[in-house]
Specification:
Structural class: mainly beta
Largest sheet: 12 strands, mixed
Number of strands: 27
C-alpha cells in the first residue's frame, strides 16, 4: 500500500507538534520563525568573530544545533570527505542524525513519520576532515537502548544526502557525549562528486520556512535470510551446540539511496538489531559444516518536506526527495543448514585443547559482506556480523572425555576476535 500524500502531511505535522522533536532539519515549530540569537553573541543563530561566510551560514542552518567548532571537548565521531580522485573537500556540511531502534519502528504505520533528530553539525576543514561534537542535552535519551544509539553521519552533496550508519555505545557523563564502542570497522570517509554549498542549503531551508521535514515509513521488505555464523567440526566424537538468546544484538548493514532509482541502493554503514526470543539450534554430532540463519526484517523510508506557509498551504502535496533508506527492524526465527564446503584451514597457534566441555562466548566473528540476500530488492546485499557473548555462544562437548581441539580462523578461541570456530581431533 502506497502512503497517501494528505496522510503524510498530517503525520509529519503531528510528529512535530505533539512530540516537539526536531524532524530531520529544522525544529518542529508551529508557524514560528526559525533562528534566534543576536549577531556576535556566539549563540546558535548568531555570528562569530572572524568567521568565514561558510561558517556564518552554518550557524543559521539548523540554528538550534550548535556548530561543533564552538564546542570544547572530545568529538563523538570524526572523518573525512573526498572527491572521486581522493582529494579533500573543504566546507562540506556534515551532520549527525539519531534514528530510533528498529523495534520502535516496527509498529509505525506505512505513511507515518519516523522520529529522527539532527544532533550535531560541522564543516570540513582544508584537509577535508571534520569532527562532530555533541553536548549532553538529553536529546539522545529517547533513542538509547541500554546506552546504545543508532547514528547516521550525513554528508550534504549536490546530488543529495550521503549517509553512513553505525550503532554506538555512548557515555554522556562528561562535557561532551563520547563513544565507548561502536560497530564501525574503520574511519568514516565519504566520497562525493560535488558538495552542496552551505549557503545554498540555507537558502533552500529559508524558501520553505517554516517547514516540517521527516523520514516517512513507506513500506516494508519481505523477510530476508540472514547468515548469523558458520561452525565446523572435523572431530567425529565431538558434539556442537549453538544458541542465540533474546535481546542479543547482531550488526547488520543498512542501504542508502541518493537521487537514483528507488531500487538502486548501496550498502553504507551498519545498525544493531535484536531478536525477541531465545533460539536453541539442533545439536550437531560429529563431523559437520553448518550455517546458522535467521530472518531479517527491514523497512523502507523516504524523505519528505512540507511547508506550512500560505504559499504551500493550499492542498499542495509534500515535497518528496529521491532519498531512501533500507533500515533493519529485527531478527526472527532461527534454523541451521548443511554447508557444502569443508572446514576452513586454521593455524596451530589458533587452537586450544579441551577434554570434555567448552563454551565459546567472547570475541567477534567474521563480517559476512553478503550476509543478507537483498540484491533482488535494492540492488545490493547487506552485511551481518555477531560477537560471541553469554547470550550468543557455541558449546563443544566430548561425551567420553576424549581430548579435542577448538580453533579460530583468525585467532585462538578465547581471544577478542576468534573468527569462525572449528573443532578438530587431538592431537
Amino acid at each position: 500500500m502506497k502512503p497517501n500524500n494528505n496522510t503524510i502531511v498530517r503525520n509529519i505535522l503531528a510528529l512535530g507538534l505533539v512530540t516537539g522533536l526536531m524532524v530531520v532539519g529544522l525544529p518542529t515549530m508551529a508557524l514560528g520563525e526559525v533562528g534566534g540569537g543576536n549577531p556576535g553573541d556566539g549563540l546558535p543563530g548568531g555570528e562569530l568573530d572572524d568567521a568565514t561566510p561558510a561558517e556564518e551560514a552554518l550557524l543559521e542552518l539548523y540554528p538550534e544545533i550548535e556548530a561543533s567548532s564552538e564546542i570544547t571537548g572530545e568529538a563523538l565521531i570524526d572523518g573525512a570527505v573526498v572527491d572521486p580522485a581522493g582529494e579533500p573537500l573543504e566546507d562540506v556540511v556534515v551532520t549527525l542524525e539519531a534514528w530510533p531502534q528498529g523495534s520502535n519502528v516496527k509498529d509505525i504505520a506505512i505513511g507515518e513519520a519516523i522520529p529522527v533528530s539532527i544532533v550535531a553539525k560541522a564543516l570540513t576543514d582544508e584537509n577535508g576532515e571534520f569532527e562532530l561534537k555533541l553536548e549532553d542535552t538529553g536529546v539522545l535519551d529517547e533513542y538509547a537502548d541500554s546506552g546504545s544509539v543508532e547514528f547516521q553521519v550525513v554528508t550534504h552533496a549536490e546530488d543529495g544526502e550521503h549517509a553512513q550508519g553505525f550503532s554506538g555505545l555512548i557515555d554522556d557523563s562528561g562535557d561532551t557525549v563520547v563513544l565507548l564502542d561502536s560497530t564501525l570497522e574503520g574511519p568514516i570517509e565519504t566520497e562525493i562528486e560535488e558538495p552542496a554549498a552551505v549557503t545554498d542549503l540555507l537558502a533552500e531551508e529559508e524558501a520553505l520556512n517554516p517547514k516540517f521535514c521527516a523520514w516517512v515509513k513507506i513500506g516494508t521488505y519481505a523477510k530476508r535470510d540472514a547468515t548469523i555464523t558458520q561452525i565446523y567440526s572435523t572431530a567425529s566424537y565431538v558434539n556442537t551446540d549453538f544458541s542465540y538468546s533474546k535481546d542479543q544484538a547482531t550488526t547488520v548493514g543498512i542501504g542508502v539511496n541518493v537521487g537514483t532509482s528507488a531500487v538502486q541502493f548501496k550498502a553504507s554503514g551498519t545498525a544493531s538489531v535484536k531478536t525477541g526470543s531465545t533460539v536453541t539450534f539442533n545439536t550437531k554430532k560429529g563431523v559437520h559444516s553448518t550455517g546458522y540463519r535467521m530472518s531479517a526484517r527491514y523497512y523502507k523510508a523516504q524523505k519528505y518536506c512540507y511547508s506550512t506557509s500560505l504559499a504551500r498551504g493550499r492542498g499542495e502535496p509534500p515535497t518528496k526527495y529521491k532519498e531512501y533508506r533500507a533500515m533493519p527492524i529485527d531478527l526472527t526465527g532461527g534454523w541451521s543448514v548443511a554447508l557444502s564446503v569443508s572446514a576452513p584451514a586454521t593455524k596451530a597457534n589458533n587452537c586450544d585443547t579441551f577434554e570434555r566441555v567448552v563454551t565459546a562466548d567472547r570475541g567477534s566473528s567474521v563480517t559476512w559482506t553478503n550476509g543478507i540476500a537483498f540484491k533482488d530488492a535494492i540492488g545490493t546485499d547487506l552485511s551481518t556480523k555477531i560477537s560471541f557473548s553469554k547470550g550468543i555462544k557455541v558449546t563443544f562437548t566430548s561425551p567420553t572425555g576424549k581430548r579435542y581441539k577448538v580453533c579460530g580462523t583468525t585467532n585462538y578461541p578465547q581471544s577478542g576476535n576468534p573468527g569462525l570456530y572449528v573443532a578438530r581431533p587431538y592431537p
